[in-house]
Amino acid sequence: MNSGVREVCKRCTVIGGSGFLGRHLVEKLLERGYIVSVFDILQGFELPGVTFHVGDLCDRQALLPALQGASVVFHCASPSPASDDRALFHRVNVEGTRTVLQACREAGVQRLVLTSSASVVFEGTDIKNASEDLPYARRPIDYYTETKIQQEKLVLEACDPGRGFLTVAIRPHGIFGPRDPQLVPILVDSARRGKMKFIIGFTLNMITLAYSPALLSWRAEGRVRPRELTPSCPRQAYHITNDEPVRFWEFLSRLLVGLGYEAPRYHLPYRLVYGLALLLWLLAVLLRPLLTFRPTFTPMRVALAGTHHYYSCARAKQELGYRPLVSLEEAITQTVRSYPHLRLGA
Ligand SMILES: NC(=O)C1=CN([C@@H]2O[C@H](COP(=O)(O)OP(=O)(O)OC[C@H]3O[C@@H](n4cnc5c(N)ncnc54)[C@H](OP(=O)(O)O)[C@@H]3O)[C@@H](O)[C@H]2O)C=CC1
Ligand SMILES: CC(C)CCC[C@@H](C)[C@H]1CC[C@H]2C3=C(CC[C@]12C)[C@@]1(C)CCC(=O)C[C@@H]1CC3
């Protein structure tokens, strides 16, 4: 292979590369010698060797220059799941993804890796060791999930091995780790406001999570192209988790205690809290023209807190060679260490 060809093979674009997962991915790709372009609505950081393209992914003209010459595109952009702006979710996750697909084809991109979510099958009831064969949620709990389902379908349906355009969706679940803007910050904010004293529902519900650095080391190795991706087997989504189911409340308690806060200990009935969360959500929608407030306990969070939701990543292990690189124990230790500013009293 001459150096020109090798260079083209190693050129990639990370859409949403300024975000939590995207930035970790950019760092791993650089370590592995990729030439990286980032496309994001804002430039979140500066790194030698990274070219930034700032724009909205719904704008094909803005997107195209960022995709030129890339053989693989990682799509990691989405509005925050904490938002309840339905129009925004639809515009970015559905219409925006159509635009990404169109721009990829125009730019001659060969592979598109979507970061979907394991929550595309979650509708508020127990999920135990689910494989990817589980159908999409018929009644998604929130707009985020609703549009992640549509997004994943669009991307997988666009897979066209005959024309040399391969798509794959990875479905992480509850990504955490250094710089995560969601899980640990929401938890600490709730603890600081005295809201983390309660256990919702029963204490034994298990979940799987995905520790970002471990997830990305693997992903950045380019193992995202399924070996079996052939015209007869073109559409693939893969659960990616730490592969160590843990009790939800034990996981949260270890993070909280690690940061100096008390673990939750008083029990509240699941149905009562879920009902209250629905009521609050409705109030927030009705009162929006007059005042804005964001409830901590959203129906989605309460559902996640009170049910089993653990997923099998056997397919990714078998077909993609996926292995979680860090134990859950180590992942929690590293995560706690990375948030000195969120410790009690800091
Ligand atoms: N975090 C988690 O637990 C999980 C996340 N995922 C998925 O992983 C992906 C990455 O998530 P995460 O890193 O946590 O999210 P972040 O919000 O940290 O990153 C997403 C990035 O995309 C940017 N973005 C949003 N809208 C647009 C747009 N219209 N055009 C260009 N860029 C845009 C965001 O900018 P801005 O911040 O300004 O909006 C942000 O920089 C998402 O697709 C998410 O659905 C899946 C499972 C679990
Ligand atoms: C307030 C408490 C009841 C819960 C605090 C912890 C939660 C903030 C997190 C626990 C599981 C997380 C999770 C997500 C966001 C943060 C949690 C609810 C996602 C919804 C993020 C986006 C996804 O694609 C799925 C995630 C599932 C797990």
UniProtKB/TrEMBL annotation:
<keyword id="KW-1207">Sterol metabolism</keyword>
<keyword id="KW-0256">Endoplasmic reticulum</keyword>
<dbReference type="InterPro" id="IPR002225">
    <property type="entry name" value="3Beta_OHSteriod_DH/Estase"/>
</dbReference>
<keyword id="KW-0472">Membrane</keyword>
<keyword id="KW-0152">Cholesterol biosynthesis</keyword>
<dbReference type="GO" id="GO:0006695">
    <property type="term" value="P:cholesterol biosynthetic process"/>
</dbReference>
<keyword id="KW-0153">Cholesterol metabolism</keyword>
<keyword id="KW-0551">Lipid droplet</keyword>
<keyword id="KW-0560">Oxidoreductase</keyword>
<keyword id="KW-0520">NAD</keyword>
<feature type="domain" description="3-beta hydroxysteroid dehydrogenase/isomerase">
    <location>
        <begin position="14"/>
        <end position="268"/>
    </location>
</feature>
<keyword id="KW-0443">Lipid metabolism</keyword>
<keyword id="KW-1133">Transmembrane helix</keyword>
<keyword id="KW-0812">Transmembrane</keyword>
<comment type="similarity">
    <text>Belongs to the 3-beta-HSD family.</text>
</comment>
<comment type="pathway">
    <text>Steroid biosynthesis; zymosterol biosynthesis; zymosterol from lanosterol: step 4/6.</text>
</comment>
<dbReference type="InterPro" id="IPR036291">
    <property type="entry name" value="NAD(P)-bd_dom_sf"/>
</dbReference>
<feature type="transmembrane region" description="Helical">
    <location>
        <begin position="272"/>
        <end position="291"/>
    </location>
</feature>
<protein>
    <recommendedName>
        <fullName>Sterol-4-alpha-carboxylate 3-dehydrogenase, decarboxylating</fullName>
        <ecNumber>1.1.1.170</ecNumber>
    </recommendedName>
</protein>
<keyword id="KW-0756">Sterol biosynthesis</keyword>
<feature type="transmembrane region" description="Helical">
    <location>
        <begin position="198"/>
        <end position="218"/>
    </location>
</feature>
<dbReference type="GO" id="GO:0005789">
    <property type="term" value="C:endoplasmic reticulum membrane"/>
</dbReference>
<keyword id="KW-0753">Steroid metabolism</keyword>
<dbReference type="GO" id="GO:0005811">
    <property type="term" value="C:lipid droplet"/>
</dbReference>
<keyword id="KW-0752">Steroid biosynthesis</keyword>
<dbReference type="GO" id="GO:0016616">
    <property type="term" value="F:oxidoreductase activity, acting on the CH-OH group of donors, NAD or NADP as acceptor"/>
</dbReference>
<comment type="subunit">
    <text>Homodimer.</text>
</comment>
<dbReference type="GO" id="GO:0008203">
    <property type="term" value="P:cholesterol metabolic process"/>
</dbReference>
<dbReference type="GO" id="GO:0000252">
    <property type="term" value="F:3-beta-hydroxysteroid dehydrogenase [NAD(P)+]/C4-decarboxylase activity"/>
</dbReference>
<keyword id="KW-0444">Lipid biosynthesis</keyword>
<dbReference type="GO" id="GO:0005783">
    <property type="term" value="C:endoplasmic reticulum"/>
</dbReference>
<dbReference type="InterPro" id="IPR050177">
    <property type="entry name" value="Lipid_A_modif_metabolic_enz"/>
</dbReference>
<dbReference type="Pfam" id="PF01073">
    <property type="entry name" value="3Beta_HSD"/>
</dbReference>
<keyword id="KW-0007">Acetylation</keyword>
